[in-house]
Amino acid sequence: MIKDLRDWLREVGEIGELVRVRGAHWDVEMGPLTHLVHEAKGGDAPAFLFDDVPGYAAGYRTLYGQLSTIKRLALTLGLPLEYKSKADFVRAYQEKMSHLQLVPPVWVDTGPVKENVHIGDDINVLEFPVPRHHELDTARYIGTACVVITQDPDEGWFNLGTYRSQVYDGKTVGCQITEGKHGRIHRDKYFERGQPMKVAIVCGQDPLLYLLGSSPMPEGISEYEYAGAIKGEPIEVVAGEYTGFPVPATAEIVIEGDILPEATLPEGPFGEWTGYYCSAATPRPYVQVKCVMHRNDPILTCAPQHKPVDETVLLKGVAGAAGVWQALRAAGIPEIRGVWCHEGGLGVRFMVVSIHQRYPGYARQVLHVASSCQAGAYNGKWVVVVDDDIDPADMSLVLWAMSTRFDPVTDIDIIQKAWSSGRDPMVLPGNYNNRILIDACIPYDRKLRGTFPPVVDVSPELREKLGEKYRGLLS
Ligand SMILES: Cc1cc2nc3c(=O)[nH]c(=O)nc-3n(C[C@H](O)[C@H](O)[C@H](O)COP(=O)(O)O)c2cc1C
């Protein structure tokens, strides 16, 4: 298995999905360039390693677009690289996640992350080529494709979550954690007691930790344990110099510090994952930096988000779909044939579940569990259920089912006052949103009786026969 980010970059280079760029500027150049490439290539865009950033030492690099293809996601998870369809990849991912034996991290005395340790006056997070990502951002963001390590004050477990981090000055950074996220629940618990919260912000790490840190994982178990299970060996961690937290021994950059209760600074505006600059500068708690550790020639990992298709929608969609699939299985719901969260729906806002109907009311049950389980609950909007002749990732077939098997009066349910946030331009007072569930399956009674019209299709036998006879035309 891949050992760290540098090992991963070597392998991505070998499969021809890494592009090196020299001389791009940190100020709205690297981010918009990645935006344009993803706009043009969607799920085929390469990862970009930027070096020789003007004003910075050679070797101080940034990395964009880590997980925007199925191949790079599969490589990161130790899965085969080729799939017939996107839904097949989700199946492989969720099967792997369902059979994991958790492996706790192992402490080691030291590691490359401690090649440079800065404390006191020596701290300056702007020693790294921190980008300003979008044209209307008013600040540089050091944490986007990062993982923020926090500890539950009651139970002691460590969470890894991807939460963005604005730079205020060399010794002060932000940490924007939305309500309900695990790091936020930890922070709320400290603040309720009037205590500061320690954090370690990792800004360059094994992409597997980033994938898990930005996925809706169960609470109470550290993402380190899942990463160890996926790799089949424990993640090596060293004690953070200030926090004592377990930080990856091979991390590129780690920023440690305290978030104080009741102290805020204006955070944002920032180009958000929903594709809008959703709010003006908003007062939010921030981090007083106490220590910075980094490798020689560090790589700062970045992920600016923007209107689709951006570099994060595939990873969010795959992780969300796999999590929903697991939740449906855990709820005892049989015969799930596929789940896909569409890229145009931001990877979380347009989910399609394909099922083999087994009993009346089954489709409705699937819709409600998929939209309300932890993996599917945050900031959703549309959930659609279709029969198993529909590939949930094929938008034309999904729209065909919605156009021919769905009745607007009987096949819609609405969930009101669901979990949302200010990142939603349609957010309701109180930070809720409403969402829509669509049953686009053939009505179960008509399916049973065989009274729904037959589909105009080519039978498997005729497909095979014509495939052989007209191989040249059809391949
Ligand atoms: C690139 C990227 C940036 C993100 N930024 C934030 C953020 O600033 N704040 C936030 O609450 N969630 C953010 N998220 C979403 C969380 O990482 C995600 O909801 C994750 O499940 C949180 O971990 P948790 O469930 O352990 O809290 C981001 C996700 C990605 C992929």
Structure overview:
The protein has 14 helices and 21 strands. The chain has 475 residues and is of the alpha+beta class. The mean pLDDT is 97. The structure holds flavin mononucleotide. Residues 144-145, 159, 161-164, 176-178, 181-183, 214-217, 303, 305, 312, 316 line the site of flavin mononucleotide (FMN).
Distance between the termini: 35 Å
- Rg is 23 Å
The percent of residues in helical segments reads 25-40%
CATH architecture of the largest domain: Roll
Strand content: 15-25%
Inertia-based shape? globular
Describe the biggest sheet? 9 strands, antiparallel
Question: How many strands appear in the DSSP assignment?
Answer: 21
Number of helices: 14
Bound molecules: flavin mononucleotide
Whole-number tally of structural domains: 2
CATH class of the largest domain: Mainly Beta
Low-pLDDT parts are: none
CATH topology of the largest domain, what is it called?
Pnp Oxidase, Chain A
Mean pLDDT: 97
Structural class category: alpha+beta
**CATH homologous superfamily caption of the largest domain:** Electron Transport, Fmn-binding Protein, Chain A
Question: Which SSEs are present, and which pair or pack?
Answer:
Elements: H1 5-14, E1 18-22, H2 30-41, E2 47-51, E3 61-64, H3 70-77, H4 86-98, E4 106-107, E5 116-119, E6 141-143, E7 147-151, E8 158-161, E9 165-169, E10 172-174, H5 182-192, E11 197-202, H6 207-213, H7 223-231, E12 236-239, E13 246-248, E14 253-267, E15 282-294, E16 299-301, H8 313-330, E17 336-341, E18 350-355, H9 362-372, H10 374-377, E19 382-387, H11 395-404, E20 412-419, E21 432-439, H12 444-449, H13 460-469, H14 471-474
